[in-house]
Amino acid sequence: MSKTAEFLSCGLERARGAVVSVVGMADLQTGARDLTHGLLARANGRLRQVEAIVRRLIFLMALSVQLAPTAPRKRGEAGEPGLPAGLPEGTELAIFPRAYQHRLQLLPPRTPFAVTGQGWDSFGAVSVQSEDRSRAKPDPRRLIARIVAVQRVLAAPEAHAKRLARSLKRLQAKGEPKPMIGPVESAFRLSPELGAIASLLPGMIRAGLESWESSG
Q: Domain of life, per the record (predicted)?
C-alpha cells in the first residue's frame, strides 16, 4: 500500500468516526435528550467540517484513479417507446415518484470561488439553510439527511472517486481552470488525528493538480 493510499484509508476511517460523533453530539441515535437550537447548530457546524474533509479525501482519491477507455454501450432490442426491451406487447408500467435524497456534492463548483479567511477556495463550505429558530422545537431532519449522504459516500469511496475522476477529466479536457484549495477552517476544533489530516490535504491536492493545465 502506497503512502497516499494509507493516508486516504486512515482519513476515511477518521471521517467515519467523526460522523458517528456528530450523531452522538445531537443524540440522534436515541432521541432521549431534548435537542436545542444551539446543539443543532453545533452539530451542523461540525458536520460541515466533516463534509469538507470527505470532499477533499474523495478528490485526492480521484486524482490517482487510472481511467480505462469506456466501451460503447450496446443497443438493446427495440421495444415500445418508453419501455425496456423484451417486455410483452401491451405492457404498461406503473411509475412512482422517487423520494428525494440529499447528496453530498463532490465536484467543486467552477465559479464562483468561495473566499475564505485563508484566500480563494473551490472547496468552500457549501451554504446550508439556517434553521428557523422561531419554531417551538428544532427539526433535525435536514441534519439527518446530510449525515446519511456523507455515510453513503464513505460506504463506497472508490465508486464515488471514480465518478468524480471522470468529471474532472471532462473539465480538464474543456480547458477549465484547476480547482483552488485552502485549509479547512477551524481545524483545531477537530480531533488531533482528523485535524492533522485536514491540514495535510490541501498540500497533497495541490501536488496532485500540478499537471492540470490552467486556462487562466
A: Bacteria
Distance (Å, whole) CA 212 – CA 199: 22
* Domain range for 188: 3-67+102-130+138-208
Q: Which residue has the cell 460523533?
A: 21
**In the chain, what's the furthest Cα-to-Cα distance?**
64
Residue 204's pLDDT band (cuts 50, 70, 90): very high
77-107 burial string, b = 16+ CB within 10 Å, else e? Answer: eeeeeeeeeeeeeeeeeeeeeeeeeeebebb
Domain-located, residue 198: yes
83 falls within a domain:
no
The string of pLDDT tens digits covering residues 124-167 is 544 444 445 555 578 888 899 999 999 999 999 999 999 999 99
